[in-house]
Automatic annotation (TrEMBL):
The keyword Kinase does not apply. Keywords: DNA-binding, Transcription, Transcription regulation. The keyword Hydrolase does not apply. PROSITE patterns: HTH_LYSR. PANTHER family: HTH-TYPE TRANSCRIPTIONAL REGULATOR LRHA-RELATED, TRANSCRIPTIONAL REGULATOR. This is LysR family transcriptional regulator. SUPFAM superfamilies: Periplasmic binding protein-like II (SSF53850), Winged helix' DNA-binding domain (SSF46785). Residues 6-63 form the HTH lysR-type domain. Belongs to the LysR transcriptional regulatory family.
Length: 290
């Protein structure tokens, strides 16, 4: 039986189409025609020897084999891109100062910084975990090169919008709600000032619902622990929510709908140094597909 050598260019079209939810959008992003991307998908299915996609309503969904292929395709592309970065940027040296919130510690840091360090072993990355306001102050003062932060200032310089996220109520995985009807909603929040704490209180006040601060913490880890213990509900975005907590359906839980929140990558300079630009590229690649 002859070995199959998959085309990485075809793999990239496949992965991009799945992540964007549309192969027409994938064609636009990759600078190809829709027919060219369709031909690539046909080639990939021919190489796999079985369909990778099936009809699902008006759209398409992955078959079981397609799900397996997607996992391998992502790994192959990641290794390819890492190798390309290492070859092109082997001489990069110095340091990059990155600021971000705890929300992204587990979901972004290990993968992005691991890839960055393997490709550029001579570079040193300094990571600063802080609240949004502190991150923006450090960036403006020149103490950070990059900051992954919420969009709280419409005119902040050198900002690149990544995505808009829906704030949501977070509760324990227990079937029962962590509060009793007709009693104040117990909130588990970070110490003030906190934009999500403010958003929760404003939403409850606007809905005419009574609330009380049941637990406050200086860290997100403390907040998650209190929610897991059933002390109350909290508010964050879907990014970084622990697997053993749940995003609550506001209508089912009799809670008000929360506002959306933009996420952006901020640079201290309009034209950053090559090492800063490369780390920014990796962060964007990691989060734009979320």
């Amino acid at each position: 039986m002859s070995r199959v050598t998959f085309d990485l260019d075809v793999m990239r079209s496949f992965v991009t189409g799945i992540e964007l939810g549309s192969f027409a959008k994938a064609a636009e992003r990759l600078g190809r025609s829709t027919s060219a991307v369709s031909a690539q998908l046909k080639k990939l299915e021919d190489q796999a020897g079985t369909p990778l996609l099936r009809k699902a309503g008006r759209g398409m969904a992955l078959t079981e084999v397609g799900e397996v292929m997607l996992g391998y395709a992502r790994r192959l592309l990641e290794l390819n891109d890492e190798a390309a970065s290492a070859v092109r940027g082997v001489q990069l040296e110095g340091r990059v100062r990155l600021g971000l919130q705890e929300d992204f510690g587990e979901s972004v840091l290990p993968e992005v910084l691991g890839r960055f360090k393997r490709a550029h072993p001579r570079l040193r990355v300094e990571v600063h975990i802080a609240r949004n306001a502190a991150l923006m102050q450090s960036l403006e003062a020149g103490r950070l090169d990059l900051a992954l932060a919420w969009e709280t200032e419409a005119r902040a310089p050198h900002a690149q919008h990544i995505q808009t996220l829906q704030m949501c109520w977070i509760g324990a995985n227990a079937a029962q709600l962590p509060y009793v009807a007709d009693e104040p909603i117990p909130l588990v929040v970070l110490d003030a000032p906190c934009l999500m704490r403010t958003a929760a209180i404003n939403a409850l006040d606007a809905a005419g619902l009574a609330w009380r601060i049941a637990f406050t913490s200086a860290s997100l880890a403390g907040t998650w622990a209190a929610v897991k213990a059933g002390l109350g509900v909290s508010v964050r975005t879907p990014l970084g929510v622990p697997a053993d907590l749940r995003m609550m359906d506001a209508s089912v839980a009799n809670l008000p709908t929360l506002p959306q929140l933009g996420l952006a990558l901020y640079r201290s300079e309009e034209e950053p140094a090559p090492e800063v630009a490369r780390l920014a590229e990796l962060i964007l690649e990691r989060l734009e597909g979320e």
